[in-house]
Design a protein that fits this description.
Layout lengths: L16 H11 L17 H4 L4 H10 L2 E4 L7 E4 L2 H8 L5 E2 L15 H7 L16 H9 L5 H21 L6 E2 H18 L7 H11 L1 H4 L5 H23 L8 H6 L9 H32 L1 H9 L4 H12 L4 E6 L3 E3 L2 E3 L4 E5 H4 L35 H17 L2 E11 L8 E10 L1
Parallel strand pairs: 2-8
Antiparallel strand pairs: 1-2, 3-5, 4-10, 5-8, 6-7, 9-10
Helix pairs in contact: 7-17, 8-13, 9-11, 9-13, 11-13, 13-14, 13-15, 13-17, 15-17
């Protein structure tokens, strides 16, 4: 007997995340930015205005990690050197990723007193990247088969076809937004395929990614209800897909079906389900889309490297690694110290927040020569830690690399040269590092 699929919930028309934040900041300028600590790299304005590089350089020269006593996110240790981040990531029991201690972003976990004063209940979103062993291990193993080398081989033909078809539709002789037309379209389409998500609704994935992955937005209490309302709509939509897949008679290998058939994930609470959805959506969307935009911007800034790419397509695999290093699409991850310890001569107390600034480590002069320059021939480009390090290294790293390689190969096949030809707007955030708009024009080489 056939099962009637549940009707998918309606998703209301809501402002985009960056538009809501922009409107709020117009009416409520952030007074915390008027007298900042000179090394408080949690401030979103330095990324929006692209002036973070000299601040981190000065910090790296002064040492591997520094205590920032005051910030919009409370006190934290800024870990800025490559070796220090690898050291901390290699000790996951001592430096916890668990949501119970504060999770993986710089955001504060409110105390019971703060919650009571605001009259709100605690809202937690557990996800496997914000778990310690053994929970992390079981849930990661559930989705990992989707990202193995053999799975990448199976997906490459489809990725190449979709990429080529999109590039063939791009206008010539007119300015358009690369972020929306190419980066978002390719990554959102990939996510839709991974989830088995309805194709006609795929742009919802980008919308939800922006509302869930913006640390700056999450600090604005006045937008809390709107934000949580949108995330609950996301969960309801995915819940309807979960119910559909539960009643499928044919086996499927999309991520939702893999969760359903996993002992580690088929009994998730609603909060854990929502948390893991956010992890997979932000991880699969923001990181790849911002590197796809970052590649174009970097090639325009370094025309000698674009010329190398055009003349030596065999450099493309290494160019992908170098562009990921140069862009670093997630600026930081956070850990919480579980007991008093010492790191590189600094006394770290139990409960201290350590923010691992990947964006700084990937410009560390001790590892990368002339690090502020794009160099697609760089011999050690693969030493970047844009995907993290250790047990929490990005599970979808191979897929991101594949999508970027295919994009460059298909551009080269069409002899496409992309020039920045208009507005460039960066994301106003300290977590996701990328572009909101990148107006370009295409010529041929």
């Amino acid at each position: 007997m056939a099962t009637v699929a549940p009707e998918r919930p309606q998703v209301r028309s809501s402002p985009k995340a960056h538009e809501a934040l922009r409107e709020y900041l117009k009416e409520h300028p952030d007074e915390r930015l008027s007298h900042p600590h000179k090394w408080d790299v949690s401030r979103s304005d330095i990324y929006f205005e692209d002036r973070w590089q000299p601040i981190f350089k000065e910090m790296r020269e002064a040492g591997p990690l520094h205590y920032i006593e005051e910030s919009p996110f409370g006190p934290y240790w800024a870990v800025v050197q490559h070796k220090a981040i690898q050291h901390i990531e290699a000790l996951p029991e001592l430096f916890s990723s668990s949501w119970e201690h504060g999770g993986i972003t710089i955001l504060n976990r409110l105390s019971e007193e703060e919650l009571a004063a605001r009259g709100v209940e605690r809202r937690e979103l557990p996800m496997f990247i914000a778990m310690d062993r053994p929970q992390h291990t079981g849930q990661r193993r559930t989705v990992a088969p989707k990202f193995t080398p053999s799975a990448m081989t199976d997906m490459e033909t489809e990725i190449r076809q979709r990429t080529g078809e999109l590039l063939d539709t791009l206008p010539r002789g007119e300015v358009f937004d690369w972020v929306d037309t190419v980066s978002i379209e390719l990554t959102t389409g990939m996510l839709a395929i991974l989830f088995g998500f309805p194709w006609e609704d795929r742009r919802l994935l980008t919308f939800w990614s922006d509302w869930s992955g913006d640390t700056e937005l999450a600090t604005v209490r006045e937008l809390d209800e709107l934000r949580w309302g949108i995330l609950n709509e996301m969960a309801a939509y995915f819940q309807s897909l979960w119910i559909e897949r539960t009643h499928q008679t044919e086996p499927a290998d999309d991520l939702i079906s893999m969760m359903i058939h996993s002992d580690a994930m088929n009994q998730m609470s609603p909060e854990e389900f929502m948390g893991n959805l956010i992890l997979l959506i932000v991880g699969g969307n923001d990181t790849t889309r911002n590197t796809m935009s970052g590649i174009i911007h970097a090639f325009d800034k370094f025309p000698d490297q674009r010329k190398l790419f055009e003349e030596q397509p065999e450099l493309i695999p290494n160019a992908v690694q170098e562009c990921i290093r140069y862009q670093t699409p997630l600026a930081h991850m956070r850990r919480t110290c579980t007991e008093d310890t010492e790191v590189f001569g600094q006394q770290i107390k139990k409960g201290d927040k350590l923010v691992l600034w990947y964006i700084s480590a990937n410009r560390d002069e001790e590892v990368f020569e002339d690090p502020d320059k794009l160099d697609i021939t760089r011999e050690n480009a693969r030493r970047h830690i844009a995907f993290g390090y250790g047990i929490h290294r990005c599970v979808g790293a191979r897929l991101a690399e594949l999508q970027l390689r295919v994009l460059l190969e298909e551009m080269h096949k069409r002899r496409m040269r992309v020039h920045v030809a208009g507005d460039v707007e960066r994301v106003r955030a300290n977590f996701v590092h990328g572009f909101r708009k990148l107006e370009v024009e295409i010529t041929e080489f």
